[in-house]
Amino acid sequence: MTTPLNFGGLSSGVQWNDIVDTTIKALEARTLTPITDRITKRAAQKEAWNSFQKLVETLNTNATAIRRTGFGGFVATVPPSPTTSRTLLTATPGLTATPGRYRVEVLQLADTAKLAGGSVADTAAARNLTGTLDINGKTITLAATDTLADIRTKINEADAGVTATIMSEGGTAGRLVLTSKTAGATGISITDGTGGMARELGFLDTRSKPVSSATSTAAAALGLAVYPQPASIRVGNTLITANLATESIAAIAAKINAAGGSASVESEQYGSETRFRLVTDGNVTAIDGDADSQAIVDAFGFTAGVAGTIRQTVQSPVYTDAADNVATSASLLTGLKLDGASSNLAVGDAINIRGMRGDGTAVTIGIVVGATDTMQTLLDKINDASDGFGGGTRTATAALGADGRIRLTDNTGGASRLSMTLGVTQVDGTSGTLGAAVVSTVGRSRELQTGKDAILRVDGREIVRQTNSITDAIEGVTLQLNAAEVGTETDVTIDRDVKGAVDAVQKFTDAYNAIRKFFDEQRQPGAPLFADSMLRGVVDSFTAALRTEVASNATYSRLTIAGVTLDRTGVLTFNADTLRTAMSSVPEEVEALFGFNGVGGAFVTATDNATRFGDGPISLQINSINENTVILRLREVEAQKRLDLRREQLIAQYTRMEEAMSRLQAQSGSLLASVQGLNGNN
Is this model's pTM higher than 0.90 or not? Predict the structure, then answer.
């Protein structure tokens, strides 16, 4: 530390401040400045070594690039479809690819499966479901207090290979949707556990065992000699009373539909026979404590079915006859009442049947009411196979329920645009209506999206995979399928990437020359690493790597033959045309020349050795500089302390001298005054 000295010799006239500063500067030049200069030099050397290390690391990166298998890499050419101009697939060659041409036809893309459950009015309300279901082998346990949102969370936390979401249907309503996390035809495996939870949630339908007849009494169709008494059963959220002695499964299905549920009768081949099943949306369970109810459920043998479709149904208002009895197929149209009020239908009036089939095609048909026309006449017209709902490519069937409602059901399951209105034009030209049919069961597919495998042909060989990213159809090449187009073959061409090889060698050459330029700069007097033998040794190892020879190559055994030459100044030159010629004639030799046992491998080894942490030459030099700098800084601190102490000593010394001279001057003045006084007295 420097202590300021701001006094001159008031008594002596000597400028002590200048003397101290001059003395300290002389001492500083001899003791402190040499240390500071050495620290500065060490800092410059460290910076130079750090710069050199970055250059060597860049050379290592580029040497690794030319050393790799498939030197320069490969490029793929995939033309678009000649028919649709779509890009059906892309190809990405890896390092182990083989040049060639391959004919690829994309027959089908892989897709993920997606299942939808049944709709609920409030996704935040407790579902009052207790039981289990299995999704892809993972068991999900439901509690009575679980909301649909809770169930979604439980499924996601089970890591069952699906993502559960809630599809909003407006307001608080929604349904649970499961999406497979992986594509493939295996899709989503969902099975019922205790309590039929997969059916309760609407992922699966419920099916009876196959019976011999859809129209005979259920007891007869089931082959029951002893059958339970009529009892109520629960179908989804609907209660109906079933009488196996008098009702067929078709009648029971109609009763379920009339009560607001969804049911149908499906036929299937059973050996040489045709048998029938009662199929419902939702679980079928017995009423607690009701033995007859349980017996009915047991008799039908209801089990979990499939994730099929639900057919849309629209229903009319309730029709009654002139005597206010529920209308039947024999009820006359002229006495028909609508929700208890007269329809005012008379002979000669027209009933205009309008609507859309499930596929959206329009239906426009009607009848002129005759004196003997009945509800069956109206049903027959609605079901007309030419112009009615029984015609077209997507038919629907109308039936009159025991509750007096006409129900028109789409014969195809899934999303539907089915609708119907029954308008009336009376003889006098006035208009009326038999009411608009409202949707009672929404058509939907539980399987929103079918899981599919990718299918492609490569040179006539069919390949099936669960993903659209195909890694094993062409060795060393990844095919990404974008679109299927049956009948379109695409020629995928794999070539060596000559441009990539040229670019890689050019980058390697530039990286080597950057090191050579650095070395030449450090050879100049005054450079931080001037005459540094360690630097020369590292650069010499790189020069030696350039001379690596691959004796097994018949033609291109040395770099100079392949177009990379070291000139007389130590700079690499690169002739890209020479390398291109080599790549087109014997690419295997070029790859070997730059490969693991060639120049690339030699340079990776040399650069790894140079930059190796701890005992590599660059690391050793930097560590040595750091250690020496620590010692020098300690010496610098000590030298500064000695200078500060010497300054304080000089200040104290000269202060005492000045004080002594001041006292002498005071004494001299006193004596002189005394002498002058004596002389005055004389």
Answer: no
